[in-house]
Here is the input.
Amino acid sequence: MRRLIENRFGMLALVLIALAAVYGGAFVSRPAPVRVEQPKPVRAAVASVSTVCPDPGGATVSAVTPPGVEGPGEATVLDGEKTVVLDQPGTLWQKSIAKGADPVRIGATGAMASGLEAGRTSKETSGAARGLAGVRCVEPGADAWFVGPGPAVADLTLHLSNVEAAPADVFFTVYAGEGLVVTDQATGMVLKPGEHRAVKLRKVITSPLVMGLHVETSRGRVTAAVEAVLGQGKGADWLPAAAAPDTQVVVPGVPGSAGRRVLYITAPGEQDTVVQVRAVLKDGSYALKGREDVKVPAGSTTTMDLTTGVGGQPAALLLTSEAPIVAGLEITGTGTLQDVAYTAGAPALDLGSVVADARKGTRLVLSAPFGAATVRLQLLPKEGDPPPPTQVVVPAARTKEIRLNPPPGGEKGFSVVLQPQPGSGPVYGGRVIEENTSLGQLLTAQPLAVARTWALVPPTTDNPAAVLP
Here is the structure.
């Protein structure tokens, strides 16, 4: 031992052995590490809502807050110089707006903001704009996507409103069949606070037969909506706002009636992509024979005729792509004079949905592309008490179409509240209104949007760094 100690190399070995024993014992006896879970977003009730109904002249504007909310709150409808106050959840408000009116602004706070929904629906029996036309009233935002026919085949009007207290800088991008369309007139628009503007896209871009349209703001927020008039005997309607670009898109709300069906797909990125197309029908989910996929060049919009695939059947379309895409569908009615309607990519209705305007001839088209879904369905008549709610079960990979008969007191109009039940799979849907005339079918469609009832907000913690420089 003495020799070992006297040997400096031996001394080093003893030190290392001792340190290993000390740290080894500490490692074995240390407490188990505490597992830190990442905080998850918190569901918070919506406390305020602001929405704009574009070009309401000659249309019926509807607004409703679903029942079941408690506490103070009110909604206000600013119709020109008149202000109407709404303070009863579950009561449908409707009004026919005179032609030439400015956009109608609807705002709500407190309990009346929870689930507030509004829409505008019009009907023309003659002229270039003949048809039923409807659109969900729009919330202010920093960007919006639309997809459908281009200004070469339709008279397209982009309706913009700035309801904020600060100016908004607006620009838009068009993705045509031949690729990205660049024009100086699509940039540099400044909307003053409270300003509304209608932009005729034919005066800005004339060549596209089809288009994807991206409206953005570099400062402020605006509401954006697109009206499409195809011309005498061809129909008119509004292009619904489409879900933001994603690699998986569900286009719901395809009605089970005859007529042409045309799919529009925009690939706004810098990568060409191949999109796989599946139809979710009442008897199953299928890749359509001969239409299993479609190639979409980068920065362009492509169409595919799906009439022989989904025509006459209620459906949703499930699109999968390697690159993000935006998608929508044109629905053409039958008859000597035709009418058109549009649906677009939409999110799952995890937090429920509200339809402000329903009437005789209304159908819901619900799809469960990934797993069986159960939905609670409540009708809210314009007059009288609502009937008991019902439950609708949609089997996995199936679509179900539901014809809605007006409840007692709902002959002049009613609203619909949908709420997925616990354990339900993702459900997507659309509302369709049809009216048969001697000259042909009138129709309008609307993909169901997530109700403005809850918002997912990031969790907050006390941290001095939030206020320190």
Summary: The helical segments are 2-6, 8-29, 307-310. The chain has one domain: 42-455.
